[in-house]
Design brief:
Distance between the termini: 46 Å
Low-confidence stretches: 28-46
Structural class: alpha+beta
Radius of gyration: 19 Å
Number of helices: 8
């Protein structure tokens, strides 16, 4: 009896993007079809907000400092890895997040694309909520860009040589923490060049923070939201 073949990550990603592309085509059909689709969504769930409200103030909405986030990182994280080789040996404790329909991982020079399961689930939920929010608000679909993930002790030591502000006790050591860029996105349909995407993302992150899912710091110089799972 032949075994049923399962989809690989690449096949799943290709299928997902094909479906997204089909939805994009459907959304740009003549107005009478589009109006019917919008009306149907409104009838099913009339409470979905279509306005983009953002947050009143980024720094006040996302104030969680290193001293706050490190407590959660040490509670929920793994024992810090020494280097890339050590990380490879400890894959059972970590989840690979290098490929996803919801986000694009930047070229990483000082971290590796692994998180503890709890943090990986948070990233998954943020990505899905961001997609859903873009769709109901009529904004072209985009992937988030993840700029930093798990750091080894070697990574942190290397960063300290080039950046005096880099802390030896980084939250990224524990696999609980990741950074999402707020001024760059990976377009699926077409680029959006104003702050619309940042506004939508801030709404999603505010909700996750208020749900008690994570701590978040708005980083001005790094251009990212720095967050640790709770």
């Amino acid at each position: 009896m032949k075994k049923k073949k399962s989809l690989t990550k690449r096949q799943f990603l290709f299928l997902f993007l094909a479906i997204v592309a089909l939805l994009a085509v459907v959304r740009h059909l003549p107005q009478r079809h589009q109006s019917a689709a919008v009306y149907e969504v409104s009838v099913v769930n009339p409470t979905v907000p279509h306005r983009i409200l953002s947050v009143p103030n980024y720094k006040k909405s996302f104030p969680d400092s290193q001293s706050v986030q490190i407590v959660a990182a040490e509670r929920w994280g793994v024992r810090p890895v020494m280097n890339r080789e050590d990380a490879e040996k400890r894959k059972k404790e970590l989840v690979y997040i290098g490929e996803s329909p919801y986000w694009h991982v930047d070229r990483l020079s000082s971290s590796i694309p692994y998180l503890v399961p709890r943090a990986a689930l948070l990233l998954q939920d943020i990505g899905q909520a961001f997609y859903d929010s873009l769709y109901v608000k009529g904004v072209p679909l985009q992937q988030l860009i993840v700029t930093s993930v798990l750091r080894s002790k070697d990574d942190v030591a290397r960063l300290q040589r080039h950046n005096q502000n880099a802390t030896e006790r980084s939250c990224h050591l524990f696999g609980t923490t990741f950074d999402i860029c707020y001024n760059r996105y990976h377009p699926i349909e077409r680029p959006v060049r104003d702050d619309t995407l940042k506004w939508v993302l801030s709404e999603v992150l505010r909700d996750k923070r208020e749900e008690g899912r994570c701590y978040i710091k708005y980083e001005v110089k790094q251009g990212c939201f720095h967050m640790t799972v709770r």
